[in-house]
Amino acid sequence: MKGSLIVVSAPSGAGKTTLCNAIVKDFDRIAFSVSYTTRRPREGEIEGVDYYFVDEKRFREMIQREEFAEWAMVHGNLYGTAKKTLNDLMERNIDVLLDIDVQGAKQIKALYPEAVLVFIMPPSFEELKERLFRRGAENLDLRLKRAFEEMREYSFYDYVIINDSLEKAISDLKSIIISERLRSKRFDPEFIDRFYPIV
Amino acid sequence: MKGSLIVVSAPSGAGKTTLCNAIVKDFDRIAFSVSYTTRRPREGEIEGVDYYFVDEKRFREMIQREEFAEWAMVHGNLYGTAKKTLNDLMERNIDVLLDIDVQGAKQIKALYPEAVLVFIMPPSFEELKERLFRRGAENLDLRLKRAFEEMREYSFYDYVIINDSLEKAISDLKSIIISERLRSKRFDPEFIDRFYPIV
After folding, report:
1. B1 close to A (CB below 8 A)
2. Is B184 touching A (CB cutoff 8 A)?
3. Does A148 contact B at CB distance below 8 Å?
4. What's this model's pTM, rounded to 2 decimal places?
5. How buried is B76 (Cβ within 10 angstroms: 0-12 exposed, 13-18 middle, 19+ buried)?
């Protein structure tokens, strides 16, 4: 049996990080994938826990060797998910939670067609605006426009969760993860052999 | 938005009926589909609630007119699910729970490719034997063999639930139903239009 790949995307302000942290904390047999980055570690960040910190030369080598399942440049820094990280976790029957944007989700789906893609929607325009304002986001108009553009890509995803109440969103995401574990392709046929009627 | 079709099959003794009854009782926006049958009503059975009771002539006419989504002969009586019953419920955004055997499930899947098929497994051979024995089943050996044959068809289903604990099985089936409701194809795109940034 193998773990599954759960990709979660959302526009900034939809509450994705809080949701994903709650799932990994509460739930068994699921983990975040640790990314590689060329960004410098921030205060308190731990190598191999928060990120694998590498220099740009090493990162470019990994791109050349096609070691990444997805990668992107964000604010001048490179971020990437190694195929090996994903495969090692899945082989250990651990579901992997991948918190990436729409472009990353598309790269993952191309490489892992069985990945489960979940899009988190903010509950309303007013709520999104307020959340972004509260966290002191700059270029509010630009961010709202970008959120709108990202949300329009929802149909590429398998599931959509409206993050209206955090509790409800957690329970919805858990339902998706549980149902993925119940897929018949994950069922061990040896279970049935033990029913062979030697009566 | 339309309700979904949830087909539940299981070998006799797997605890399917208890499970399905609990789901319909506990859960909102889901109902059993009422079948047509040529069998005579038993004490307390209500027309239109337990079954639509019809004579064989009427049933055969309905077959001729292709009004059934699936039908079967069981112990000399005809049983069938009308397409209209399913469509009416789904149009009202109600999920339909269909408690039918492997052959019926195949007929439904051919007609409704988006139906969600769930197979319920008994927890173990010993437990299945005991459950069948307890309910005074005749031809125990034959029933166990038939259960084995049915279980081998599990891979035709989308999901497999092992009915080890009723509580766990109920929660598993709920997760499947909830995740089906969260599918992006069921998401109303008008939700996004309300985010159009007129800022």
Report:
1. no
2. yes
3. yes
4. 0.93
5. exposed
Cα angle value A50/A53/A59 (rounded, 5°) = 130
**Are B141 and A197 in contact (CB < 8 Å)?**
yes
Total domains in the fold of chain B: 1
> Residue A167 sits in which domain range?
5-193
Q: Do B172 and A178 touch (CB under 8 A)?
A: yes
Residue of B3, B186, B188, B185 lying closest to B94 (CA atoms): B3
Q: What is the pLDDT of residue B1?
A: 63
pLDDT of residue A1: 64
Binary contact (B197, A148; C-beta < 8 A):
yes
Q: Is B139 exposed, middle or buried (0-12, 13-18, 19+ CB in 10 A)?
A: exposed
Task: Report chain A residues whose CB lies below 8 A from the CB of B173.
Answer: none
Nearest CA in chain B to A171: B175
Q: Min CA distance, B190 vs chain A (Å)?
A: 11
Tell whether A198 is covered by a domain.
no
Q: What does the pLDDT average to over B158-178?
A: 96
* CB atoms A192 and B154 under 8 Å: yes
The answer to whether residue A199 is domain-embedded is no
Tell me if B197 is assigned to some domain.
Answer: no
Closest CB to A184: pick one of B158, B179, B182: B158
Check residue A136 and give its pLDDT: 80
- Cα B64 off chain centre by: 24
Distance of alpha carbon B149 from alpha carbon B133, whole angstroms: 19
Whether residue A59 is contained in a domain is answered as: yes
What is the pLDDT averaged over residues A92-116? 95
Q: Specify whether the CB–CB gap between A95 and A114 falls below 8 A.
A: no
Taking CA–CA distances from B184, the nearest residue in chain A reads A159
What CATH code is carried by the domain that includes residue B112? 3.40.50.300
pLDDT of residue A198: 59
Q: What is the mean pLDDT of residues B121-130?
A: 91
What's the first-to-final CA gap in chain B, in angstroms? 30
Which value does ipTM take for this structure? 0.92
The closest CB to that of B144, out of A129, A192, A197, belongs to A197
